[in-house]
Each structure stands twice: as structure tokens, then as C-alpha cells.
Amino acid sequence: MEKTCRERRRLLKRLALFAGGGLLLWKYLVPSNNGKAKRELLRVNKADLPHQGALVFRESRVAIVHEGEEMYALSLVCSHLGCTVNVTSKDLVCPCHGSVFNRQGEPLKGPAKGPLQRLVLQDQGGTVAVLA
Ligand code: FES
What we know:
Layout: H1 2-29, E1 40-45, E2 53-57, E3 62-67, E4 70-75, E5 86-87, E6 92-93, E7 100-101, E8 107-109, E9 118-124, E10 127-131
Antiparallel strand pairs: 1-10, 2-3, 3-4, 4-9, 5-6, 6-7, 7-8, 9-10
The structure holds FE2/S2 (inorganic) cluster.
């Protein structure tokens, strides 16, 4: 009986060591993203970019906005609970709980307290890539 308990403990220790070793190997051998490599959400021909206003990609939940001299991409994922924000002629409105954001993505009306995420626009010759 005592021998069986000892063997069971030894087996559990080996399993714990094996699992810990596996986790260490995973951590050091599998490359992590660390926010350095951005993921391409979509690519747009430069000719299709708006001269003024917003170009909305609902499936990708992205809007490319051209305001004055500035062009930028906004995530349409609401900073409150993640619903997809609608783009209107003057602002962005969340249909779920009524948050309103200005064209720069800053919250004008809650419950959302944070801004919409600005995404990276990367010039790639004849196209522009939106990266997150
Ligand atoms: S998810 Fe947008 S206001 Fe709640």
C-alpha cells in the first residue's frame, strides 16, 4: 500500500515536471506577437480612398476617414462592449447602448469612456493597408 502511494507521488512529480518543462519550451520556442508585427485587416486601392469623408468596411469593422489634410483609419469596434459602431454624416453612433463618438473617434456621449482605436495606415505603392 505504502509502496503504491510512493509510486503515485513519484508519477505525479514527473507529470508536473513534464508539464512545467513543456510550458517553458512553449514560452521560449514559440514566437510571440508582442505587438510588433501588425496584422493586415484590409487593403484598399489608393484611387478608392475618399477625398473627404469616410469609407466604411463593415465586415472588417474599419473606417478610413479623410478630414481636411488628415487621413486615418478607425476601428469600428465600440470601446464600451465591442458592438460595431455606425458611421453617420457627422459622427459615429453605437447601436447597442447609444455611445456617440466624433470623427476622430473620441467619445462624446457614454457609456463608452475610451476612444475608438486608431489603426495604422501603411502606404504600399498603389494600395494602402490597414494594420492592427
Ligand atoms: S457597446 Fe457600444 S455603447 Fe455599449
